[in-house]
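Exercise 3.2. Students should predict the tertiary structure of the chain below and write it as structure tokens, then compare their answer with the key that follows.

Predict this chain's 3D structure.
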Amino acid sequence: MRNQKIKNPLLNREELPLFLEIKPQHVSPAISYLLNNNREKINEIKVSSDELTWDNFLIPLQRCDEELSRAWSQVSHLNAVLNSPELREEYNKNILEITKYYSELSQDEIIYKKFIKLKNSSIYNSFSKTQKKIVEDELLSFTLGGVDLPLDKKQEFKKIQEQLSTLSTRFEENLLDSINDFQLNITSENRLSGLPEDIIHMAKCCASENQLKGWVFTLDFPCYVPTLQYANDRELRREMYYAYSTKASDLADPEHDNSQIINDILNLKHQMAKILNFPNYAAMSLKTKMAKSSGEVINFLDSLASKAKKFAELDMSELYQAASKDGIDKIEAWDISYYSEKIKQEKFNFSDQEIKNYFPKNKVLMGLFDLVEKIYSIYITRKEAQVWNEFVEFYEIRDKDDCLIGQFYLDLYARKNKRGGAWMDEAISRYKFTSESSTPVAFLTCNFTPPIVNKPITLTHDEVITLFHEFGHGLHHLLTEIDEYSVSGIKGVEWDAVELPSQFMENFCWEWSVIKNMTQHIETKQSISKELFDKLYTSKNFQSGLQTLRQVEFSLFDMELHSNYDSSITNVLQVLDDIRTKIAVIKPPSWNRFPHSFSHIFAGGYSAGYYSYKWAEVLSADAYELFEENGVVSSYIGESFRKEILSKGGSRPALDSFIAFRGREPTIDALLKHSGLI
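Answer key:
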């Protein structure tokens, strides 16, 4: 077993992940070794009669978690960004084993009773607030894991957890495969009217790669979004919209249909909650969040919807007028982006493509790094490391004394067999055990337009915002100063507060003092003019009513599904339709299958938690207002934000961290002002 550990790159702990050496065949031996090793260590803890202390009880448990998580993070990351049949098979096989392991641990009565004994002991009083919070978090985790259940219910609960793990993975795989399988081959150049040159070129390259004539369009975001935005051919927009909004559904390839998986996931989560004596899954989920009840969340969302609806109705009125000029009596879902872009160009006298020419990728990164270096007194430098794709970059962060703080991988571009969307994930977390410590490492992943040979790499302003958003998550993980593994970085942070640092960073993308230093026209080499920036800024809240209602719609849909699910009567599409009838100002066609690709709640961690984006936006807007009052690039306020928010991780409740920074509880006023809803 020792030789196995030495030879397997997934078990390497002396350096960064060895991505050039990791192969699918390494996964099972590594995970098997770690699971067996962890179980041995946990059994030693269980039979030990020593007096419980932090060092002999909590640290060994945290070390088990860290060692398994470090190896598995590499596997799950590669499965998301470099998916292959062989890796997928290994991932699926081992995610089940890991789920079983954590299910067993969360129901281990001996370990649970030791936690209770520790909390009731005199030594507990000497623990720091952070250590006490970890104990409290663990006790809640045991309760939510079913430790108090009778044996038969424990077995049922574990079986549900395993089934959910399998179903969530299948949901994501169906979505990825459905996207990969779609190609729209266009052979008439007339149908390309209105499309930007780089999109046409990308489609031409895609056709060539597939040995087809003409142009091939895909459902990858860098292709799909501009096509809906610029294509004059209404039928082309409809074809693309239909494919995108029916992916992984009964109206696409039946082999990749998520319909039954959605119902099964909802049913199993409801069963899980009932076993633990919760009325529904939402009530169970909210036990670990800032919000205390689904009613509180729904009231918050309803209030936001009522404020946004009148603005959304004005937005739609403009869209109707614009479409009517082209003789369109009934505007459809595939017309919204197209006429929104037309209105934007007419109203603000610029186009997204014009703005894009001012954002070369390297200049954007320099501007981003310069901003955070000034605010947080850190220094970012590009370094060499093993990566999984030639376009992945690696950086390290150091403090003013040149001490290493953290490191991160940057994977910016869309490609086949890479999961869509943008995210930050933990590669290595900060910790300090008895004789071992580590600095954090993050994965920052986006899906921007891939590089084109002999063409400069530029980003749209929306892509710049996405980059800043994910970098905010990254800073939350990387700038932690918490040494206790369980609550360092984003671990232990309530789910409805975890978007605070990411949404906070988005605000800087609308600041002249920031933007002017991160722009350089690809031809003239000039920074963006103040006049053009002012036009961009004026457009900041363009259609914010529609955008807010859209987020509220998804959040209410999520909360309704998980609050009032009944396997005998709940129709997922009908639930969404009812919510749209209540708050939306335009309804998509009846064949829209949005739920079938709603990965956040069916394959991610946002079940009964999608409202978190808006909830945390209240926090982020309020926090940013303090920067606005004191100078947005303020190292003084930045030092406080870093100290009270970013560095604390999950070591204390998020509300306590916010109050420590802001001096009071949050209010919704800043969000309404920032969103133009006042």
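Discussion points: The two ends are 64 Å apart (CA to CA). Residues 182-246 form one domain.
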